[in-house]
Amino acid sequence: MGHEVFVYWPNILGYIRLVLIFTAWNAFNNPAVFFTSYSISVILDGLDGWTARRFSQTSRFGAWLDVVVDNLGRSMVWGQLYEWGWLVSSVEWCVFVCNHNAHGAQWTNSFTNSPQWVKTIMAKSG
């Protein structure tokens, strides 16, 4: 993996999503800014994978960045909405770290020996 991977289009979308997540986090008490920032981040989340495949710019770094930004966004929402949101977020981060380190970019396919409900959830990439 060369340094050019850091400027792949899908990764640039990931960096933009990261800025939008932190903007939403800081503007949680301003519903218009929060909703707009978070919604654009969600839309870009759908576009980054498509962009990666369309321009043949898939990478391990991109797969990692996508999941990290997804987790940060959900952690922010859990933490802002519920006092115990840190617990849900912590479990999600543990699952990511354990599975991503063991299986790399294909970590969402690593649940073949899991209970059916876990397979059902992970069939749609979480």
From TrEMBL:
Membrane-related topology note: Multi-pass membrane protein
Superkingdom assignment: Eukaryota
Keyword NAD annotated: no
GO terms assigned for molecular function: phosphotransferase activity, for other substituted phosphate groups
Main subcellular localisation: membrane
Presence of keyword Manganese: no
GO CC annotations, alphabetized: membrane
Subcellular localization, as worded in the UniProt entry: Membrane
TM annotation in the entry: 6-28
Gene3D superfamilies found in the cross-reference section: 1.20.120.1760
Any one GO BP annotation for this protein: phospholipid biosynthetic process
InterPro entries: CDP-OH_P_trans, CDP-OH_PTrfase_TM_dom, CDP_ALCOHOL_P_TRANSF_CS
PANTHER family in the cross-refs: PHOSPHATIDYLINOSITOL SYNTHASE (PTHR15362), SI:CH1073-145M9.1 (PTHR15362:SF13)
Family per record: Belongs to the CDP-alcohol phosphatidyltransferase class-I family.
Protein name, UniProt field: CDP-diacylglycerol--inositol 3-phosphatidyltransferase
